[in-house]
Amino acid sequence: MLSKTAIFLAIGVTLLVGVSLFAGQSVLESQRFQKKHNDHHRHHHKSHHTHQGEDYLKYRMKSTGIPTTLFGPYVFIYDGIYEQNPNPLQAGIPKWVRNNGSNIAILSFLDPVELEKSDVPPQRFLDSLAEAKDSSILNIMFSIGGWDFQNRFVQTNPQTVAKNAASIAKKYNVGIELDCESDGAMSWMNQFISAYRAIIPNDGVNWYSVLTMDTGASPGAFPNVEQVALNNLNNLNWVNVMVNASDDPSDNNMYWSQHKFPGNQMTVARNLVNVCDSASAMAPTLQFKKDGQPIKGILFWAALSDETCDAAAPQARNCGTTCTDCTGGVGGPGNWSCPAVTSACQAYGVCK
């Protein structure tokens, strides 16, 4: 939920804990990432065997219909580096989100390689569904990819990934987002969308039929991704314009009007850094219109980099992340709150 591009480019520490982001990294870094992937993969398959014969209804969301307007966060669950942080956040949907603070939460991120092998999500995703399934207004999506998994799409068969993603969507009544932050996967994305829609048509009625994708903060950030989105507007419920920089507390409205998506098929993302208690910081986002028309909604990313932490005011409230954790995304299911965002949801007409 970025530009998550800029977020993780800023997090130089990820390159030291073995995430293989670029060709030319050392063999040792690749081995460390592969070990982490293998460890998580073993856990994922343990989860698969555990839940395969269980009643999936205890994880199935009760969402009905597709809201006209959306307001809510990306919730960080896993992205390949999460558990390598020495003090990782406890992943989960925060209580303020579950308790009428949003009408959408996007759980991030599913690994395309793991998704190709199984249609059972990792346990952390299922646990989050169990927490939220009784909500009358909260709609859940699963995001596939993210910055750290950007090069793993082309390692998979897009038809198989689409089949398993569609199975998850139907089984658990969740929407699916494609967050492919790689301009080298244009063909893969087109094939995935086509295969997905062959299984679940865009019926405009059922929440599980929702399929969306991310694009860059500006149209030029990922031009091929942008073009895939434009070419598939009939197959996508909306396109999300990602954040620009993890250490920028403002929104990115200087870029939003440059995109060619119609307002009713466009959501915009902004950072929550230092705005949990600032209603005035939310105002420009709430007022934004695309070509004079309301947009589909507002989504939030709360990533922090080391640089953001250094610049943050003492005791700054960064929506669940702290300067000792510096992990991406809204995380932590505890009692912390985001009052300005909760009020903004009410002002936006989404929350009661």
UniProtKB/TrEMBL annotation:
Q: Which InterPro entries match?
A: GH
One annotated GO molecular function: hydrolase activity
Q: Which UniProt keywords apply?
A: Hydrolase
What Gene3D superfamilies does the record point to? Glycosidases
Its domain of life reads: Eukaryota
Q: Where is the composition biased (Basic residues)?
A: 35-50
- Start and end residues of each stretch annotated as Disordered: 35-54
The name this protein carries in UniProt is Glycoside hydrolase family 18 protein
